[in-house]
């Protein structure tokens, strides 16, 4: 996008103060850079529509702006803004509006009264595994080498809520058995995080690492990825998909077991006893918009 310039002094000052607030709150460099950029685009739009006062920001102006964003053609390729972009933009604008309003009144997260609806139904999960179905899945892994390996796979995808790519790229050095946590360095959001392991999850992973993985590897191998195949090679996307397919067929619970389903399931289960902010931290989400689907799923499955 071409470089945008703001001309309204109050807009410029508010944007600078918002950036400082993000920094003092300990926001990541990614958020400190991207959120103000999204807000700047919003403020530039307001200027172009002869709105030069923060007090003029209301539901009507915000709704019209996001309708404009949804239909604005992309500059570098065909099509319009992706849902992911709109959701990140929504998060930035809402937090900015709350910041502006908090300068005059005490308001909290989500209390601005502004609603921004983004249709994300196509990406929302429709189902999860219930706890007893997860138990059936783990119990389907027998005591063979592959069974123990597959139980470790489930422990990473469900027990730790890792994304498919995070599990595949996980290095042995990133598992800290002494502290009972996994360090995710290669994250989709480019932000590292530490994921705690429950006792059961840690036991499953330890059994695989100490009793199985070395037996699958050639004695001369220097492979450092955690997940490997029975031939001692690095596990690929297709191999992981086959593991999920095999387990689905084995348990026959009427649901196709996938990496995404396991991640959605643990997030929903955790949200029964954890705040949505803590679930977002566990999953590695940089925006609560990505996590709010689990509030819907929790309500649908558990009331």
Give a description of the structure.
This protein is mainly alpha-helical. The chain folds into two domains: 9-119, DNA polymerase, domain 1 (Orthogonal Bundle); 131-302, hpI Integrase, Chain A (Orthogonal Bundle), CATH 1.10.443. Helices cover 54% and strands 3% of the residues. A three-stranded antiparallel β-sheet has the order 1-2-3.
Mean pLDDT: 87
Q: Widest sheet: strand order?
A: 1-2-3
C-alpha-based Rg, rounded: 23 Å
Separate helix tally? 12
Which consecutive residue ranges, at least 5 long each, have pLDDT under 50?
none
Helix fraction bin: 40-55%
List the secondary-structure elements in sequence, H or E. Answer: HHHHHHHEEEHHHHH
Core attributes:
303 residues; mainly alpha; DNA polymerase, domain 1; hpI Integrase, Chain A; 2 domains; three-stranded antiparallel beta sheet; 12 helices; 3 strands
């Amino acid at each position: 996008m071409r470089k945008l310039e703001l001309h309204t002094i109050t807009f410029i000052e508010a944007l600078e103060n918002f950036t400082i607030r993000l920094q003092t709150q300990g926001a990541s460099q990614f958020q400190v850079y991207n959120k103000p950029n999204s807000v700047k685009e919003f403020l530039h739009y307001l200027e172009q529509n002869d709105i030069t006062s923060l007090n003029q920001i209301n539901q009507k102006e915000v709704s019209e702006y996001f309708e404009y964003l949804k239909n604005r053609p992309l500059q570098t390729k065909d099509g319009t803004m992706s849902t992911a972009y709109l959701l990140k933009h929504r998060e930035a604008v809402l937090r900015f509006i709350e910041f502006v309003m908090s300068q005059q009144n005490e308001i909290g997260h989500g209390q601005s009264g502004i609603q921004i609806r983004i249709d994300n139904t196509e990406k929302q999960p429709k189902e999860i595994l219930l706890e007893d179905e997860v138990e059936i899945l783990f119990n389907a892994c027998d005591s063979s080498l592959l069974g123990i390996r597959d139980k470790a796979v489930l422990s990473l995808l469900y027990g730790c809520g890792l994304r498919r790519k995070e599990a595949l790229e996980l290095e042995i050095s990133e598992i800290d058995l002494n502290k009972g946590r996994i360090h995710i360095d290669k994250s989709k959001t480019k932000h590292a995080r530490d994921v705690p392991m429950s006792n059961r999850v840690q036991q499953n992973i330890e059994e695989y690492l100490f009793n199985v993985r070395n037996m699958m590897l050639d004695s001369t191998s220097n492979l450092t990825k955690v997940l490997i195949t029975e031939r001692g090679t690095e596990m690929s996307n297709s191999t992981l998909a086959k593991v999920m397919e095999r387990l689905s067929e084995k348990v026959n619970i009427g649901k196709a077991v996938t990496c995404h389903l396991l991640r959605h399931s643990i997030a929903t289960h955790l949200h029964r006893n954890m705040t949505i902010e803590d679930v977002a931290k566990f999953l590695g989400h940089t925006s609560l918009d990505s996590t709010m689907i689990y509030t819907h799923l929790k309500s649908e499955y558990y009331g």
